[in-house]
Write a structure and sequence with these properties.
By secondary structure, this protein is an alpha+beta fold. The chain is built from 12 helices and 7 strands. The protein folds into 2 domains: about 160 residues, Roll (Nuclear Transport Factor 2, Chain: A); about 130 residues, no CATH class. Strands 1-2-5-4-3 form a 5-stranded mixed sheet. A two-stranded antiparallel ribbon has the order 6-7. The chain is globular and about 55 Å long.
């Protein structure tokens, strides 16, 4: 199996696993989905994503603060969800071999209680019986964050209803996520360097294409969610200059990513400048969150 075949198989396996998860009521209540797959549902377009992104819902997280108990609960419910879903298929193609729920960071609790979880799902496929090294399906579960009153919405996925981030929340979070990969934040949090999250710039341009900057309510709501997202992770932002730090490195990383070729870097940069210019009009800058308030 070459890399193209591998990614195609993994993309399909992720779709099946996500369907199984949202068909299972306990997991549907516990998780709020986000990321590229949810953005695709909002926009009716596609950018390949080889994992599933989610957060624990704030109300569920309050009831399950013990991380070890949460890991055990997730593993048990994931196994039930996957087995029930796969066994209902005719003919049965997939079976679940194993589910592992890991902490992130793996051993040391996060100093600000931002502990995340990664669910690794090992799936057997009858069409590839005997093939070694089939990749895991990964579900990332981030620590709960502050959310605005309309940040979560319901979306339909293959006949099931899931809870997911609204489009304006996704826009705000993608701006925050890009900032967390830049030097100022990495130095502040002493987290080491990280590759610039250029896919977030690409996705912001996709959002702007369907929600023009003249849509005042949408971008005002996005600005509010950006503020809450930054507050949740202590991300400072003075405005456009914060986004443009190490901009040549961002340009290089974006231009070298063949998966982003549908939107040239110049268009992504223009989209960012428009959005931050609008946020400037809303007077949300500067955002400053000292480490002492964590």
């Amino acid at each position: 199996m070459n890399s193209l075949e591998r990614n195609k198989w993994l993309n399909g396996a992720i779709k099946e696993a996500l369907n199984a998860i949202v068909a299972h009521q306990p997991l549907r209540s516990a998780l709020v989905f986000k990321g590229a797959r949810i953005l695709n549902l909002h926009l009716g377009t596609e950018r390949q994503s080889l994992d599933i992104d989610s957060n624990l819902s704030p109300e569920f997280a309050k009831q399950h603060e013990n991380l070890e108990e949460l890991q055990a609960w997730l593993k048990g419910e994931m196994l039930i969800a996957l087995r029930n879903y796969f066994e209902r298929q005719s003919p049965v193609r997939f079976t679940v071999q194993n589910v592992e729920v890991r902490r992130n960071p793996p051993r040391i609790p996060h100093p600000r209680k931002w502990d995340a979880l990664v669910v690794l799902i090992k799936i057997n496929d009858e069409k590839f019986r005997g093939v070694m090294g089939m990749p895991n399906v990964e579900l990332e579960i981030a620590a709960p964050e502050l959310l605005g009153p309309a940040a979560v919405t319901e979306l339909s996925l293959d006949g099931h209803v899931l809870r997911a981030y609204a489009l304006h929340r996704i826009a705000g979070e993608k701006l925050r996520a890009f900032l967390t990969s830049l030097p100022a934040y990495r130095e502040k949090m002493k987290g080491g360097t990280r590759a610039h999250r250029v896919k977030d710039l690409h996705d912001l341009a996709r959002i702007l294409a369907v929600r023009p900057i003249q849509d005042e309510k949408f971008w005002r709501d996005s600005a509010g969610e950006f503020r809450l997202a930054c507050q949740s992770r202590l991300v400072d932002c003075a405005g456009l200059a914060t986004f443009l730090q190490a901009w040549e490195a961002t340009r290089t990383a974006y231009s070298n990513d063949a998966t982003l070729s549908s939107i040239p870097f110049s268009a992504a940069e223009d989209a960012l400048r428009q959005i931050i210019g609008k946020f400037q009009e809303f007077q949300i800058f500067p955002l400053e969150y000292p480490l002492s308030q964590a």
